[in-house]
Structure formats: C-alpha cells, structure tokens
Structure to design on (364 residues):
C-alpha cells in the first residue's frame, strides 16, 4: 500500500480519484526495476549517482528573511506538495516527501525549522519544489488574507544535494517572501511574492534533532550559511540615483556571480529606514515603475492592483558582474495621484521577487 503522507516514488503519476498510477520509464531513463509492495527496486546507476539500491534520510529546513511593510507583525504561509528531483531521471525524477502546514515566517529570522523528514532513495538531487497555497498577515492588530503571486516554487540546490544510506542529510531552503500593501492606512490590501535559494547543510552540522518536524536551530555564527547567503542573495549595488518631478535615473551593478532579475522600482516618500521591508510603505501612495525586458521603465498609474502581476513579469535580467543604467523621463505621479516634491526625501526600492536595493535620495 502506498501512503501519500510518507511515501516516495520516482515513477508515479497522479490520476485523480484512482490515486497513484505507477509508470515504468525504463526505455527513456535506463531504469531497470519494478514497484513491489510500495518499494522501488533499481538496478545499476544513473550518470554516476550514489547507489540507487539504497535509501537515506533527508530533512528539509526552512529559514526566512522577510520584507514587510510597517505595522506587519506576522506573515503566515501555508505550504504543501514538497518534492525533490533526482538528477538523471528526467520528468520521472520527482520524489514526493511529506510536509505541509502553516508557519509564521517572521519567527524564522536567523533560525531554521524542520518542515519535513523522511527516507528517500540515496541519490543526488538538484531541485526542491513546494507550493504556497495561501498566506495572511497580522497588521495593526488584525489578520488579513494576502494574494499570493508565484505560489509554486521550484528551487535549485546550490552545488547539488547528496543523500546516502550511511549519514543523515539535511537541506535548508532560504525563502524570501515580500509583502506589499497595495491599499492605504484605512483600507489595506496585501499581496505577496516569494523567491528562494537552497543548499545542503554540511554533514558536520546535521543534528539528530533535525529529523523532528518543528525542530529549530540557530543560524547565528554559521559561517557556511552566511557565506551562502552573501554569495547567492539577490543583492544589487545601486548608485547615481537622481529624482525630480519629471525624471528618475540610477545605475545598477550585480556584484554576484548569479544573474538576477529586476522587475520594478518603488519610490516611497518619507519612508522609515530601520529595515528594508519597512521602506516599502504603502504602495498605493508610492511611485511605481515596471521594468521591461529591454531595461526601460514604465510608470504605473491608477489602480494599485497592477503591481502584483509584476512579480511574475519577465523583468530585466542583469548578468553576474554586469551593470546597467536605468532612466525615465516624463511627469511622475504616484498611484494615489501625488507628485514628486522638490527638496523632499524619498526611498528608492529596486525589486525583483524581493527587495534588491534600498537607497535614499532628496528630490531636485
């Protein structure tokens, strides 16, 4: 019997009410084996992977540096449908793993929490995916449901993930949800998008306690994690920012090795500066520019609901080590029909799926 809550299968297909149907793809993927009593039996190896006749333990950990508007005290996400992908098995390489629930991601700053732990084939994996089915925030003492953009995340393991039969393995998913308030102080309206990176936890830092779902571990002082975050976070160096009632210009440099995508620029008047997320303020009172694939900027006007879809837009991809100059010319008006005021201070937030850079500027 196959238990959906705790089983894995490299050649399973969902078929509605009939449950799981097993499909052998030996010809396409070089897999010789059969499914007997819920266990997959493999022969040989695939592309130099670890011994596929064995199984090992994998724990999935979640951590989160969220970006939120002022007044948000909790960000709840409901996750489900976890799976990892085995290298060399094509479309049949997805291994379903248990794990679903709701978590306050604001409670995971500099902490990791185990959200799944199970036995899976001892192979090398390159991807992890999961679904964010719904989300909400606590804002000014009330709970609000959020619109979720890009709800299904498929994330590559930096350097791959190896699971073997002798030592327990763990992987950490560093998710970066961004919450935007598209309304105003009297009528808030929230939307969320999330990006993520994933990495195998060094074997020396894998603890027995990580096998327990709900286990929390501090990431303070973990050199491997700090190095991973600094090397693979979507940081952007922005310089030469100028702003007036009829122009915006800035230069963006991608200092990392990974390409990153710039999707929008949010200019917020008199924003708090204590945290990146707080600089977002209320989008309804901000000046918002969509970034097109050719690097041009387009000013949004009217309905703030135009902002959410930008998270899924193509945007402008900036290669590692590359820089580009961005500019807009024309009368700048906020979504709330306000104008840029000469001599006033503004915060310029350059965004991908999360804030990439936050700069302050005085309008000329």
């Amino acid at each position: 019997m196959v238990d959906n809550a705790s089983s894995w299968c490299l050649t399973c297909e969902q078929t509605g009410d009939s449950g799981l149907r097993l499909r052998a793809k030996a010809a396409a993927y070089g897999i010789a084996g059969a499914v007997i009593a819920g266990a997959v039996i493999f022969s040989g190896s695939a592309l130099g992977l670890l011994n596929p006749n064995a199984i090992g333990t994998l724990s999935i950990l979640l951590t989160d540096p969220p970006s939120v508007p002022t007044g948000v005290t909790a960000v709840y996400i409901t996750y489900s449908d976890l799976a990892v992908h085995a290298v060399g098995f094509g479309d049949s390489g997805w291994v379903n793993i248990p794990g679903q629930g709701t978590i306050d991601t604001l409670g995971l700053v500099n902490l990791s929490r185990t959200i799944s732990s199970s036995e899976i084939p001892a192979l090398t994996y390159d991807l992890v995916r999961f679904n964010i089915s719904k989300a909400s925030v606590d804002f000014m003492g009330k709970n609000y449901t959020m619109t979720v953009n890009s709800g299904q995340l498929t994330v590559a393991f930096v350097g791959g993930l190896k699971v073997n039969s002798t030592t327990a393995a763990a992987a950490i998913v560093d998710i970066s949800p961004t919450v935007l308030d598209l309304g105003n102080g009297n009528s808030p309206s929230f939307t969320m998008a999330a990006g993520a990176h994933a990495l195998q936890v060094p074997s020396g830092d894998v603890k027995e306690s990580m096998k327990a779902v709900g286990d929390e571990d501090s990431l303070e002082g973990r050199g491997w994690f700090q190095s991973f975050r600094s090397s693979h976070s979507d940081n952007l160096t922005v310089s030469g920012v100028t702003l007036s009632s009829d122009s915006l210009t800035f230069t963006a440099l991608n200092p990392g090795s990974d390409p990153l995508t710039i999707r929008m620029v949010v200019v917020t008047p008199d924003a708090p500066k204590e945290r990146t997320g707080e600089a977002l303020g209320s989008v309804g009172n901000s000046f918002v520019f969509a970034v097109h694939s050719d690097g041009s900027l387009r000013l949004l006007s009217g309905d703030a609901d135009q902002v959410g879809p930008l998270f899924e837009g193509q945007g402008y991809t900036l290669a590692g080590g590359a820089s580009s100059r961005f500019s807009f010319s024309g009368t700048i008006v906020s979504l709330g029909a306000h104008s840029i005021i000469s001599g006033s201070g503004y915060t310029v937030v350059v965004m991908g799926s999360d804030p990439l850079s936050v700069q302050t500027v005085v309008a000329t």
